[in-house]
């Protein structure tokens, strides 16, 4: 099913950058309040990756396919039947489609996904295919 409103690579990368920026500021602020010092070293650890993954999985379910960066860029994750995403969609998309496949392919799947978004008419990447989702421009 090809639609005119699928989001391209540029807007998706911008939304991801904005998510990282906003979430980093929030976590760094809490770290500063708790520890009394400012550091971005938390972004290298398992705790950060866990928080970020939970954020990517849970917030779109609660916020109808949006996360902060996607909301700012006016794009949204949707199921292929145009409904709101579910926990199973987001688990398959983020955990299996992005992290598991990305780890097993040593990151090659991320490059392939970028190419898929650039060259496929429906602009769906590997994690979109696995999760049964697409990213729509609103």
From TrEMBL:
Protein name: RDD family protein
Cell location: Cell membrane
Entries under InterPro entries matching the protein: Pra-immunoreactive, RDD
Domain RDD: 7-131
One Pfam family from the record: RDD
Chief localisation class: membrane
Membrane topology reported for the UniProt record: Multi-pass membrane protein
Keywords: Cell membrane, Membrane, Transmembrane, Transmembrane helix
Domain of life: Bacteria
Organism ancestry: Bacteria, Bacillati, Bacillota, Bacilli, Bacillales
Membrane spanning residue stretches: 12-34, 46-69, 96-119
């Amino acid at each position: 099913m090809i639609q005119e409103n699928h989001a391209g690579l540029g807007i998706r990368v911008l939304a991801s950058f904005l998510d990282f920026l906003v979430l980093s500021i929030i976590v760094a602020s809490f770290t500063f309040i708790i520890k009394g010092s400012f550091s971005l070293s938390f972004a290298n650890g398992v705790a950060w990756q866990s928080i970020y993954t939970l954020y990517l999985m849970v917030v779109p379910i609660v916020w109808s396919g949006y996360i902060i960066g996607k909301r700012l860029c006016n794009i949204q994750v949707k199921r292929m039947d145009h409904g709101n995403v579910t926990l199973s969609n987001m688990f398959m998309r983020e955990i299996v489609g992005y992290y598991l496949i990305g780890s097993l392919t040593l990151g090659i799947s991320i490059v392939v996904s970028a190419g898929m978004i650039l060259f496929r008419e429906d602009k769906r990447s590997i994690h979109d295919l696995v999760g049964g989702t697409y990213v729509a421009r609103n």
